[in-house]
Specification:
Blueprint (H helix, E strand, L loop, with lengths): L1 H5 L17 H9 L5 H89 L3 H5 L3 H43 L1 H48 L1 H6 L3 H53 L5 H42 L21 E8 L8 E8 L4 E5 L6 H8 L7 E6 L2 E2 L5 H6 L1 E4 L10 H6 L7 H10 L3 H5 L23 H15 L3 E5 L7 H14 L4 E5 L11 E6 L2 E6 L1 H7 L2 H8 L11
Parallel strand pairs: 3-8, 3-9, 6-7, 7-8
Antiparallel strand pairs: 1-2, 1-4, 4-5, 9-10
Helix pairs in contact: 3-5, 3-9, 5-6, 5-9, 6-8, 6-9, 8-9, 13-15, 17-18
The chain binds adenosine-5'-triphosphate.
Length: about 600
C-alpha cells in the first residue's frame, strides 16, 4: 500500500537541464510540476477533509436538536437510519479519505520533493565551473543543497496540510455559523480579521528574530569549528584562553538572540489567548442570549460553541506553521542564491567530442584577466608540438596556473583561442577534452573511497593487472599493500579517509601519479608533481615518469628548476606573458630571467620574485 504511493512519482526522473528559477514561487512550481495530476488530487482530498471537519460540528448541533425534538422514545424510529449512515461515514468514509489524503501528502509529496530538490540542485552544481567552487565554501554549498530538501518539501506540505486545509475549514465554519445565525458569523469574521492582522504583524517580527537566531548559531558553529579544525595552531600558540574569549562573545550574542525570539513566542501565546477569549465569549455569549430569547435551539448553541472551541485549538497551530512556512521560504531563497546560478562554462549545443590526435597544443593570442583589467594571462601565443615536453617556469603570480586552467577549460578564455590538434577546445565537449589530459597537481586530494576506486576513477574499464602495473610504476604498490583502514580493509580495498587524510602527502602524490599513468592520456600536465616526495622516492618516480611520458605532450610546472632537466624546452612567464622560450642551455646563455632564477636557486627552490 505504502509502496504504491511512494512509487507514484520518480524523484530522479529526467528533467530539463536548465538553471533553477531564482525566485521563490517559480522555483516551488518547478518542483511541484513533477507531481503532475496528483497535485490537484492532493488539494481535492485536503478540501474534502477540511469540509468534513466543519460538517462534524454542524452535525453535533443537529443531533442535539433531533434528540430534543423526537425525545428518547421517538428518536430511533424517526432518525435511526440517518444516525446509522453518519456513524458509517465516520467509521469508514472519513478514515478512508483522511488516509488517502495523508498517503498522498506524506508518501507521494514529501517523499518525492525532499530528495528531488536535493538531487536536482546537486546535479546542477556538479556542472558548475571550477571558478564557481573556488568562490564558495564546499561546506556552505552542501549545507544549502541539503537544507533545500526539507524546506521545499515542508513548504508544500504546510501549504496543503495546514494553510489550504485551514482556509477551507474556516470558510466552511463561517458558512455553518451563518446558517445558524448571521450575527454569530459576523463575530467570527471580526475575530478572523483581528487574527490575520496579528498574524501578519507577528510573522514579520518572528521570522526576523528566527533569522538572527540562526545567524547567531552559525557564528558560534563557525568559531567552534575553526578552533577544532586549527587545533594545532591553537595549541602551538597557547591560544586556548583566546579561543574561549572569542567563542564566548559569540555564545553571549546567541543567548541574547534566543531570548529575543522566546519573548516573541510568549507574547504570541498571550495575545492569541486574548483573541480566542474574545472569540469564545462573544460567540458563546451571544448564542446563549439568542437561545434565551428563543432565537436559537440548544443544538445550534452546541454547534456554535463546539466550533469556537475547535478554532481556539487550531489558531495556535496555524500561527506556528505559518511562521515555519516563512522560515522555509527564507532557507529556500538563501539556498537559491548559490544554487540557481547559471553554469559559466557550458558545452555548445551539439558539441562534438574532441577527436584524439597526436597531442599538439596551440594558444593563439590568449588573454584572460578573471573579468578584471589585469592579472591572469595577457596575449599569450604558444605552440607545443606533439610529443614535446615543455617546462613552465615563472615567479609566483606569473600566470602558469591560469594557463593550465584555461587549457583544461576550467574557465573560458576572454580573448583568443586554444587548439588541440587543430580543434578549438571551446567547441568540443568538456568531458572529451579532459579525457585526453592527464593531470598530477600539488594538491592531490583523493575521494573518500577505497584506493581501488580512486585509481579506477581515471579509467573505470581498467583491469586489475593494469591498475597494479600503474601503481608499481608510480612506486605506490608496496605502500598500498601495507595499508589497513579502521574497519580492517586492506591494500587496494582500504579507504583513504576524507580528502585522503589517512595518507601522507607523498603517498597521495604517488596515487595521483599512478592514476595519471593509468589514464594514459596523450597530453600530460604535471603541476609540481613530485613536490611532496623525498629525494629517494622522487628519483625513482622521475624515472618511471619518464617512461610514462614517452610519446606524450607534456607541460610541467616547476618551482624547483632541477626537476626540469629532462624537458625539451622551457617557457618562462612573467606578469601574464611569455618572456623567454628555449632549451635550458639556450636560456642560460641568454642571461635573462631564467638564468637569474637558476642562479638564485638555493636548495633547489625558486625564490619568489613577483614582488
Ligand atoms: N581566481 C582568480 N581570480 C582573480 N584573479 C586571479 C585568480 N587566480 C589567479 N588570479 C590572478 O592571476 C595572476 C596569475 O595567477 P596564477 O595563479 O596563474 O599564477 P602562477 O604563476 O600559477 O602562480 P603560483 O606559482 O604562485 O601558483 C595573479 O595576478 C593572480 O592574482
Amino acid at each position: 500500500m505504502f509502496r504504491v504511493f511512494e512509487r507514484l512519482i520518480d524523484p530522479f526522473q529526467p528533467f530539463p537541464a536548465e538553471t533553477p528559477p531564482t525566485k521563490l514561487m517559480p522555483y516551488m512550481w518547478s518542483q511541484l510540476r513533477s507531481l503532475g495530476g496528483w497535485l490537484p488530487l492532493m488539494a481535492f482530498t485536503s478540501l474534502l477533509v477540511a469540509l468534513g471537519e466543519s460538517l462534524l460540528f454542524f452535525y453535533a448541533g443537529r443531533i442535539v436538536d433531533l434528540m430534543t425534538g423526537a425525545g428518547p422514545d421517538g428518536f430511533w424510529s424517526q432518525h435511526g437510519g440517518e444516525t446509522l449512515l453518519v456513524a458509517l461515514a465516520l467509521l469508514l468514509l472519513r478514515p478512508a479519505v483522511i488516509g488517502i489524503n495523508h498517503l498522498l501528502l506524506e508518501q507521494t509529496l514529501v517523499g518525492t520533493l525532499n530528495v528531488q530538490s536535493q538531487w536536482r540542485a546537486h546535479k546542477h552544481l556538479l556542472g558548475q565551473s571550477m571558478s564557481f567552487f573556488q568562490n564558495d565554501f564546499a561546506g556552505r554549498l552542501s549545507n544549502r543543497v541539503m537544507q533545500l530538501g526539507p524546506a521545499t518539501e515542508d513548504s508544500a506540505y504546510i501549504f496543503l496540510e495546514a494553510i489550504w486545509f485551514s482556509a477551507v475549514y474556516i470558510i466552511g465554519a463561517t458558512l455553518v455559523v451563518t446558517q445558524i445565525n448571521p450575527w454569530l458569523a459576523l463575530l467570527l469574521v471580526s475575530w478572523l480579521v483581528l487574527y490575520i492582522f496579528y498574524m501578519q504583524f507577528l510573522v514579520r517580527r518572528i521570522t526576523k528574530a528566527a533569522e538572527k537566531w540562526s545567524d547567531g548559531r552559525s557564528a558560534v558553529t563557525g568559531r567552534v569549528v575553526d578552533a577544532y579544525a586549527n587545533i594545532e595552531a591553537v595549541k602551538l600558540f597557547a591560544g586556548t584562553k583566546a579561543e574561549e574569549t572569542y567563542a564566548l562573545s559569540a555564545f553571549k550574542r546567541l543567548q541574547l538572540r534566543v531570548h529575543r525570539f522566546l519573548r516573541l513566542a510568549t507574547e504570541m501565546q498571550v495575545v492569541l489567548n486574548l483573541l480566542n477569549g474574545y472569540l469564545m465569549v462573544s460567540i458563546g455569549g451571544l448564542a446563549v442570549l439568542f437561545w434565551s430569547k428563543g432565537l436559537l435551539s440548544v443544538g445550534e448553541v452546541t454547534a456554535a460553541i463546539a466550533l469556537t472551541m475547535r478554532l481556539n485549538g487550531m489558531s495556535g497551530w496555524i500561527l506556528w506553521v505559518t511562521i515555519r512556512l516563512f522560515e522555509h521560504f527564507g532557507v529556500i531563497r538563501e539556498g537559491l542564491r548559490s544554487i540557481a546560478v547559471a553554469h559559466s562554462v557550458v558545452d555548445a549545443p551539439e558539441a562534438p567530442a574532441l577527436v584524439k590526435g597526436p597531442g599538439e597544443i596551440r594558444f593563439e593570442d590568449v588573454s584572460h584577466h578573471y573579468g578584471k583589467r589585469r592579472g591572469g594571462l595577457d596575449h599569450v601565443d604558444l605552440t607545443i608540438r606533439p610529443g614535446e615536453k615543455v617546462g613552465l617556469v615563472g615567479p609566483s603570480g606569473a600566470g602558469k596556473s591560469t594557463l593550465i586552467s584555461l587549457l583544461l577549460r576550467f574557465r573560458d578564455v576572454e580573448q583568443g583561442r586554444i587548439l588541440i590538434d587543430g580543434q578549438d577546445i571551446g567547441a568540443v565537449t568538456q568531458e572529451s577534452l579532459r579525457h585526453d589530459i592527464g593531470v598530477v597537481s600539488q594538491d592531490n586530494s583523493l575521494l573518500h573511497r577505497s584506493i581501488r576506486a580512486n585509481l579506477l576513477y581515471a579509467r573505470p574499464d581498467a583491469t586489475e593487472e593494469m591498475m597494479i602495473a600503474a601503481a608499481r610504476q608510480a612506486e605506490a604498490h608496496d605502500f598500498i599493500q601495507g595499508l589497513e583502514d579502521r574497519e580492517g580493509r586492506r591494500g587496494y580495498n582500504a579507504q583513504v579517509g576524507e580528502r585522503g587524510v589517512r595518507l601522507s602527502g607523498g603517498q597521495r602524490q604517488r596515487i595521483a601519479i599512478a592514476r595519471m599513468i593509468l589514464k594514459d592520456a596523450p597530453i600530460v600536465i604535471l603541476d609540481e608533481a613530485t613536490s611532496a616526495l623525498d629525494s629517494e622516492v622522487e628519483a625513482a618516480i622521475q624515472r618511471s615518469l619518464q617512461t610514462a611520458m614517452e610519446g606524450k605532450t607534456v607541460i610541467a610546472i616547476a618551482h624547483r628548476l632541477s626537476t626540469l632537466a629532462e624537458m625539451d624546452r622551457i617557457v618562462v612567464m612573467e606578469r601574464g606573458r611569455i618572456v623567454e622560450d628555449g632549451s635550458h642551455a639556450d636560456l642560460l646563455r641568454q642571461e635573462g630571467l631564467y638564468a637569474r632564477l637558476w642562479t638564485r636557486q638555493s636548495g633547489g627552490f625558486l625564490a619568489d620574485t613577483a614582488e
